[in-house]
Amino acid sequence: MVNTDMSTPTVYPFVAIVGQEKLKKSLILNVINPALSGVLIRGEKGTAKSTAVRALADLLPEIDVVGADPFQSDPADPKTMAPDVSARFEAGETLPVRRRKVRVVELLISATEDRVVGTLDLETALKEGRKKIEPGLLASAKLKDAVAVAIKRCPQVQASDAILFSIAERSLQLGVDGHRSDIVTLKAAKALAAWGGRDKVTPADVAEAAVLALAHRMRRRPFEDILGPRAA
Amino acid sequence: MNFVRSETMDGAAMRRVYPFSAILAQEEMKLALLLNAVNPAIGGVVVRGQKGTAKSTAARGLRDLLPSLDDGRRPAFVDFPLGATEDMVIGSIDFEAAVRDGVLRFQPGLLARAHLGVLYIDEVNLLDDHLVDSILDAAESGENVVEREGQSLRHASRFILIGTMNPEEGELRPQLLDRFGLAVLIEGETDPALRVDLLKRREAFDAVPEVFLGNYRDAEADLARRITVARERLAEVMIPEHLVAFIAEICQRNHVAGHRADIVMERAARAFAAWDGRSDVTADDILKVAPMVLLHRMRAGTPDLPPPPPPEGDAPEDSGPDDESDQAPPPPPDPGDADREDGGDVPDEVQEVGASYSVRRLERQSVDQTLRTGSGRRSRSASKQGRYVKSTSRRDRNDLALDATIRAAAPYQISRREAAMQDLAVHIADSDIREKVRERRVGNFLLFVVDGSGSMGARRRMVETKVAMVLFRGREAEVVLPLTNSVDRAAKMLADLPIGGRTPLSSGLAEAAGVLRRVLGKEPTIMPLVIVMTDGRANAGLGDAPPHEEALRAAAGLRDRYPSAQFVVVDTEPKGVIRLGLAEKLSVALGAAYFKTEDLRAEDLVSIAKEHQAW
User: Fold this and answer.
1) Which residues contact A71 (CB under 8 A, 6 or more apart)?
2) What is the average per-residue pLDDT within B424-450?
3) For chain B, which end, N or C, has fewer CB atoms within 10 Å of the first or last residue's CB respectively?
4) pLDDT, tens digit, 9 for 90 and up, residues A157-171
């Protein structure tokens, strides 16, 4: 049996996850630019899916919220404030500000299986991860700084027309539905450039972004997995 | 308490909405939306097409162009949640008021909230039919009628209805589709330069929305003004008599059932003239809007539009629309597409529907019992499974609908509390008890997978149920009949199927998998019966593997992936020749019941279908 102390949940460190580079990269890119609107992680049980997501909390920047506001309004942006907070703001009240970490919130669909899987994950983490926890924590701080720098840099990243055309043509070539693929590929490429410390998107950024942004948008023939890609 | 996304707050202040005027291309969709803004009585738009083509962006943007209401409020934008219950849609008893004050007060639903605004239903084809029905009733009559907890009430509910659907995810029933005024088909842009422009705009909007919105403020104001002016002008727009006849001719030519198309076309043409700043409808106005009126009401293909009639007075009286449509009857349906190059050396021929097959009884599998209603399309479920759609005061299943029970009891709480001996939190009397009415979609889906190759010389038989049909011949398979209730069409199609060419069996099975995925995606509890009619002599494959092996692997994949489906293989290998037994192997791979054509004599395929339905 695993003894889990509920008061101090032990989270396996993000940097201690071995492999799963695409998963880790997509999560980091979403932290850099939340407008990427999420990651769909598809994979077998026990492949560090939820571990990575929970660990992500360590990398997230701290944010300011209005104290005691259940909607956690941003004290600096009146446009997104909850109605009563907005009213207080309009009235010239100095809003109490609370600084806190961004949280990872889990939505349980049907609790049982997830719970069990979660416990097993924790067990794995405890059994195999303990030795890595110490160095992991040190590395986490560095990674967190790098993410913070990339978040700042991301809005400045530029993409040339040639880059934009390469994105559009790729979508057309692959026969992806609609335009969301273009928009997301560009955002992901910009986040990748920011992550790489660059101010301009490179073709390599686009190539890497496309892998993450297009895979689930491509049309699949029903038996592609059974009969091979040529059958598509 | 309320999880419905509804934006009644002032314009874009709360949410930054991408401006309508900044949407590139998609002209037909934009026009359809604008015409509905000019005259909501057109009856809404259903936008058919791929994801990611600015459908919801346009719908949200349209709301921002609508004039403010008389009391100064901005029109509502209601984003319809797919999981909505009937109570949420049409309204219910205000529970709080009932408990607190003991009064019955109406709690308005989404139809009330959408009044004078936009009601947007994403993926309307995935919504339950009965909800679509209530919404369309309101859209058409302009009012919502509520019968609830002994209360009867009606209120105005006029809104611009915008539905979207991706036909790949399942169709909307034709009679529901028909009730949407207009339909447009949209696709992603294929011009890279246009895509790049679009990408730049979106990035600019996301980067600094305020600046972007500022750049389009004038364009937005122009559009909004034009809508207001067109609305005012609409009443005086006239349509000459000969153009009314022209509309009738167009509808007749395209074999549109009923009169809704005529009415909508006239309204849309008048709205278009008003939008264009004119007070007289021209033939061009009609031709402009006709495709949007006809798209979802025609059987298939592109609309057949006659040339505009000569101006009034010039037209000789005797050349009525009837004559013309008689001269140009539409070509008969050719589902098999006989012209397609198919690499076979056997010429196409049409087979007669043959004599009845006889059928052994299928082994029954245990399935929970369901009560059936008249239509047979969907059944009210007697078990406690299925979606809770509404409540009833009829009690026979001990399936308590707590919410409805409490609502029914609510108004009496004050009086009961006074009269009661005990101090209970809620006083519930026997008469308050409500039970859940659940709905499950069941059975009766038949998927025919028909071998149309030259080797297939079998007789075929039609069944009375909801069917779809996949035909494989030549190089590929296609869904020649999408899911339908029309037995006539299916029967006709089965009788007229052209045959010839090679046998791409795995392609047929792959197409069948696609149909199953779509149907089960929409109706997860349906139990499909897949009838594969073939001699099994696969000789054209999808990949590099030998076609026959490939087909067997595909068959096993189909079986594994759709465990709720039952399979039947009807071996059409003719009697008298040396049997290869390939269809039998196929039936093993599918886990299918296997019949030879000669076994099928005394009864027929109808029995299989009826057995299946009776489960």
Assistant:
1) A82, A85
2) 71
3) N
4) 999 999 999 999 998
Q: How many CB atoms lie within 10 A of CB B365?
A: 8
Q: How far apart are CA B569 and CA A136, in angstroms?
A: 59
User: Tokens 């006889």, residue?
Assistant: B358
3-class SS of residue B452 = coil
Set of chain B residues whose Cβ sits within 8 Å of the Cβ of A154: none
The CA-atom distances, in angstroms, between B506 and each of B116, B335, B500, B512, B532 are 52, 20, 17, 10, 12
Q: Taking CA atoms, what residue in A is nearest to B202?
A: A183
Q: What predicted TM-score, i.e. pTM, was given to this entire model?
A: 0.65
Residue B344 phi/psi, 5-degree rounding, is: -95, 160
Phi and psi torsions of B552, nearest 5°: -65, -40
Look at residue B459 in the predicted model and tell me its pLDDT: 35
Burial class (CB in 10 A: 0-12, 13-18, 19+), B301: exposed
Please count the residue pairs, one from chain A and one from chain B, whose beta carbons lie less than 8 angstroms apart: 95
Give the Cβ contact number of residue B222 at 10 Å.
Answer: 12
Mean pLDDT value across chain B: 75
3-state secondary structure of B353: coil
Amino acid sitting at position A95: L
Tell me the per-residue pLDDT of B152-183, one tens digit each, with 9 for 90 and over. Answer: 788 888 899 999 988 777 778 777 888 899 99
Q: Would you call A231 and B543 a contact, using CB atoms and an 8 Å cutoff?
A: yes
Q: Is A131 on the interface with B (CB under 8 A)?
A: no
Beta strands in B493-609 (DSSP E): 498-499, 528-534, 566-571, 593-596
pLDDT in tens, B556-610: 888 888 888 888 887 777 766 677 778 888 888 888 888 776 665 434 555 555 5
User: Pick the catalytic residue: B233, B260, B460, B473?
Assistant: B260
Widest Cα–Cα separation across chain B = 90
Rounded distance between C-alpha atoms, residue B615 and residue B607, angstroms: 13
The answer to whether the CB atoms of B14 and A161 lie below 8 A apart is: no
Are B287 and B217 in contact, with CB atoms under 8 Å apart? no
DSSP-assigned beta bridge partners for residue B391: B436
